[in-house]
Amino acid sequence: MTGEEVGAMPGPLRHPTVQAAGPTPAVPGLPAIQHETKPGGSCSMAYEEVKVKKPLALRLLPIASLVFFLGTWQLIVDFEVLPSSMLASPWQVIQLFVVKLTEANPDGAVLARHAWTSIQEAFTGYILSLIVGIPLGLFMGWFVVAEGLARPFFEMIRPIPPIAWIPLTIFWFGIGLAGKVFIIWIAGIVPCVINSYVGVRMTNPTLIQMARTYGATDWQIFTQICIPSALPMVFGALQIALAYCWTNLVGAELLAADTGLGFLITMGRRLARPDMVVLGMISVGLTGAFIGVIIDRVEKRLLAGIRR
């Protein structure tokens, strides 16, 4: 072999040059893409998180929509399309909000006390529904005996609206904390049981058969295969159960309560104060949305840890 042929032969294979992640050049008409590189250790690949930067018009769109809604609402009341005796204007609601921060009249409590009472009742019933409903659904999904014992009672209770329990709840617990916690528990346990049960039932049968082939017991399959497989469905139940609990809490307070956001709405109806009714409704919505955001962030962190 000649020297020229040796020089013409390809050299040793080399890895392509790896450049540090940086901003992708902007393409006209498309949003800019930013890359963030997170170290994954000496033996792992670099992890790139791609973030798409929205145009300014899209970022301002929610604010513009809210301003348009509030402005239209204010004009409807100002031009008496609906009189103020039937619908309070946003400005009236804001004024009442400022007053209720420090003033207990005419409903007997400041706004913070109403909100704290509702949150306390909702979270107590919500946590109890998770503690009881999720394990019950998991056991029903895998163990035939548990399903045979619990499913008939669950199928009878499930179609009954939680509000229908209010008269009996008043007889049993009165109008205090325990009664409303019971109603919230009844409301929240249904999605917890259903999601957990379905999550176990959706476990890949190939994994179960492989585990049995290697001699795994039913308890080992349940704890090491079925429960991890059901976790996405279980975490989905968190948001659904929260919505059920929060909605039925307000319904319970509308009928029997002495404090709470639902009670605030009831007092506004009794006193013919639409501003108080609207303030209670907005407080319910904002508080529920805030709690939902917290649960969503916790859920994402837990799922991310499990996947890692």
Description:
The protein is mostly helical and 308 residues long. It folds into two domains: 57-87; 111-307, MetI-like fold (Orthogonal Bundle), CATH 1.10.3720.10. The protein contains eleven helices and two strands. The chain has a two-stranded antiparallel ribbon. It is globular, with a radius of gyration of 28 Å.
Keywords:
single chain; 308 residues; mainly alpha; MetI-like fold; 2 domains; two-stranded antiparallel ribbon; globular; disordered N terminus
Layout of strands and helices, then pairs:
Layout: H1 3-8, E1 33-38, E2 47-52, H2 56-78, H3 90-100, H4 111-142, H5 144-157, H6 166-173, H7 177-201, H8 205-213, H9 218-255, H10 261-270, H11 274-307
Antiparallel strand pairs: 1-2
Helix pairs in contact: 3-11, 4-5, 4-7, 4-9, 4-10, 6-7, 7-9, 8-9, 9-10, 9-11, 10-11
